[in-house]
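Most newcomers find our protein records easier to grasp once they have seen one. To make this concrete, we reproduce a full record directly below:

…
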Amino acid sequence: MNLKISVLLVLMIISNLCFAQETISINNQATLQLPAGAVKYTDKKFIATLSETFSGPVLEALTKHIYQADGIIFRFVINTVVSHKNYVPDKKASLDAVFMEQDVSEDGKPQHQYESRIRVINGNEILVYGFKESGRYNFFCLSKDRKIVLMGELETKPEYSTKTAIVFNNLLESIKFSK
């Protein structure tokens, strides 16, 4: 059997095994699908660390939608926004400026680990960004009507990157905003 076909079949099987789906709602403004068995993440040490910096509504927003499944931690925050036509490209430019500056070795040479791109999935503009091989996948998703933004992060051990990439793409494809 052709090697490309074998790899494709293995990826399809992993995708099906990794992503039996469970739908969750984020503040009744959006839904998305996580792997089956996803549970609320209640690591008290993590929440205590956040509470050293944040309080009140900000702390609640940062800790309200944290889930864990299959060794992956999922964090989501949703907000209403007043956006303009270049809202996502402008967000990309500002994040690129910050993170590319950090993407250098000790001797000042670029490491080329930071990457970002804009995707359109189901009519939603999505900025995907992060550092290669870090075990973190970040996104910033603007609704079709440009009124709601869903921000999220998946975090896992770098050695799980293939599985996490599949879960991440499936999650992005599952995002639906309420009307």
Summary: The radius of gyration is 17 Å. The chain has a mean pLDDT of 81. The helical segments are 3-18, 44-53, 56-64, 87-102, 161-174.
